[in-house]
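agent> fetching stored inputs for the adenosine-5'-triphosphate docking request
agent> found them:
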Amino acid sequence: MSTRTSSHGTSRNRRGPHRSGQRPGGHLRTTNATATANRLIQSTSWGDPMQFNVLGPLELRVAGEPVPLGGLKQRSTLGYLLLNANKAVATSQLLRALWGDRTPPTARKMLQNAVSGLRTMLASHGTGDAEVLTHAPGYLLRVGDDRVDLSRFHAIVEEGRTELASGSWNSAARTLRRALELWRGPALADLVETGIDWPELTALQNSRLAALEDYVEAELAAGRHHEVVAELETAVETEPPREKLCGQLMLALYRCGRQADALSVYRRTRTRLISEFGLDPGHQLQQLERAILNQDPSLTRGPAGPVRSAPHVPRPREEITALPARPSAERPPAPPITERKWVSALLVQTEPTRTASGGHDPEDVDQTFRQLTSILREEVSRFGGTLHSAFGAVWLAAFGVRRTYEDDAERAIRAGFAIRRRLESQPGVAARVAVATGEALVTNPPGGAQAEVSGDVLESCMRLLGSVRPGEMRVCDTTRLASRGAVTYADSGPSAGDVIAVRPEHEAATISLPFVAREREQATLDRLLDDVRERRSPQLVTLLGEPGIGKSRLINEFRLAAEASGRARCLVGRTPRFGWNAPLTALADVVKSYCGISPGDSTATAVRKLSHHVQQLSDDAETTEWLLTHLRPLAGLQDDSRGPDEVGEAFEAWRRFLEEMAAREPLVVVLEDLQSADETLLNFAADLDERLGPVPLLVIATARPELLRRRPSWGCGKRDVTTLTVGPLSRDATWRLLESLLARHGLCHRLTSGAPHIDESRLRRELIDRVGGNPLFAAEHVRMLRNELLPGRELAIPSLAISGAAPSPSTSPDCPVRLPQSVYNIIAARLDTLSRTEKSVLQNAAVFDRVGWAEPIAAISGLGRGEVTDHLHYLEQRGFLARTRERSRQGEVKYEFRHSLVRDVAYSQLPRPDRAEKHQRCAAWLDGSATENAELLEHHSQRGELTFRTSSTRD
Ligand SMILES: Nc1ncnc2c1ncn2[C@@H]1O[C@H](COP(=O)(O)OP(=O)(O)OP(=O)(O)O)[C@@H](O)[C@H]1O
Ligand SMILES: [Mg+2]
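agent> prediction call returned; pasting tokens
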């Protein structure tokens, strides 16, 4: 059974055409705009003879009464003409609006009928307020401006902006509110429901949001930040990311004294921008975050703190409007996308829903509900999920919908655990929590609006929730296996399977494997350390590599050797995978590790250890005190109430601390997982080497390749900066690793025992191919084989036969090795670091063949060849594809997948009808091209047919 949950938010518009700096100004304009608005406002009301409304479901009211508008085509024609009122609309344009690219042969006739029906309807109400004229090259709806709500909206907004520009905040707010109140829902909501998607509607929604921004601007300037928070929260949550709205919400929250909430809005926005568009927030939003962190006095309106309301605050406009939308060219296109994805669903039910006062008054219940929702939203987004819907006292959140993370199951558990904890402290609330993981069909609408999720996983989660007792949390088997190592479960009694505890992030269990290969990388690090020691000059080296490839292990081995030989002391700091509580955690880790502070130490012990070590480092009391003042809050040993100047000084103190340490003995500082680091830490790390004195210090940063997406020029053009790519192990090294793992588990001779028909050397080849030189993949495959080959073992890892794998005649059709789910998740997560278009190019390449080039991929995807060429090149740089030495007849580079699993996973995420269509397009392209490959043509024709048949019988 399939369950579907859908968003309440609108999916239109990505950004408004309006820019604050482009607003019309000047006296003449002001007078005209005000006059027009007044005319419109005065002459219209529900009681007027004829009123057309498009700001909501399409309506025609005559003398206040709704008039039936006829069939869908007639209503759509009227809707489209109203959006273009008093302008000639070409027939071809109308045909496209009504039927898109699939205009039936009778379309013109049908359009004529619709127009004729409209004329009859308008004439029958006989006021002459509106008529449809035949006007070359099509039709024109003549209607008075005062008869259409859209024209009134524009006129009133114009008036409001004029007031805003003159600093009349209160009247501007009132006027703009009036304009916004004309909206009864998304424009032409009834027609949108039937599937129309006109660009005019997007523009209209942008106009509404621009008006909302102006309204908020006026309210903020008038000191009414409390009043706008709720509306802003809804808009920021439901609309595609608009940086100006986010900035306004941050400012409003900050002025309400909710600094932490303001910062959490920033982090949520940043997560959305990065996951949906691969972009960091714009400069101004970043500046605002910094100003909030620094409690910049310019953000508040006076020393008395937040004020509920004030009649007039002379506030320079630039301060508030400093967050313009970025040009749309910066955004990659985001077509609606439906994919098969592994998703973790989290259900939270509170019971009983009592209010703080213990009553059931709906307003009190509503207030409690909002408080709980805000807790849920915060925790869910902290762990990278999305809050989807709430029904009564049940909330649904999903992980892996907008963007897949390899640890979505664990994230869902951590979020559920944190929510349960926080709800425990609410009076009268006991939460029941369930998490289920499974494959789902996910549709992400354009612009980042909330997704639709269909799949049995939701149903399973609901069933599971039914078995959970109040105050408990339970997860399904797949979730439990996927989160092993990070979560402790009750293993007996009535609570068996319940979540007991989650381990701190970096304490999760690790697998220890014999170390193989990496001599070259170790030699490079050794050389750099020698260099640092000899020249007594700091160096920064970044190790880049895909997840599980062995960055941390390499450093660990290097560290052990460096310490054992006494060549350097090593300290490690890690960026947390989730959450945003402490952007400088990595720096704090370094301080704590130097001072020997462990997580179990009391604050007093930790402070004592810090003081002792800092005193050792510095000779004069003043410097010691200065260092301690800044290092205590950094290490979380004191409330962080630093002012703006002190934050900069804290960095300075940390650098000084490093210098002093390195001056005493050569030092290696490791900063792990910079791809998840916050901007502050990235900026700090980027120029660390330049700001340190002449000391023997080697800073080693590790990062996944996504870092380059955020910082394309990371480390470029600097003298003492090196970037080292950690690539896959060779086939030999991979087999050595596999062999020792198989031997450790007594599996060497069992590989083919359950399948005597399979040739062992082929199985070995297959396994090496599957692992693709990734040590983590090797460990996960062997762990999976151990389950499958040793009967009676408790299942420790789920595995999959990925749907539709082996889509090409060039690979073996029946690979006997299944895929560990963990490996699938890692690859799916990597694919989701790509933009939608890049990912779709990769999926089209996966459909085409083992080797692909721009022309056929452009033919399948509908993109231009040049664009596809650029994307293929980028995908090569990111390590998804590798260029072969072959060229097409037109001289285009041919690419192959660097790892066959990337191809399999990319392909498996396509829904069946999409696969069928793409195979058919491949067949059509091969048929019409000069490429002679009968086998490939046959393959695509068959798969197109096959997949089409499967989808039509099952869908
Ligand atoms: N050269 C190697 N020989 C043996 N085992 C290795 C090697 N490299 C890595 N491993 C093992 O593979 C697993 C993953 O490695 P590691 O954690 O270092 O990956 P990573 O690149 O740091 O990944 P991430 O991006 O997730 O941090 C670990 O269990 C590690 O011990
Ligand atoms: Mg690592």
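agent> quick read of the result: The chain has 35 helices and 25 strands.
agent> awaiting further instructions
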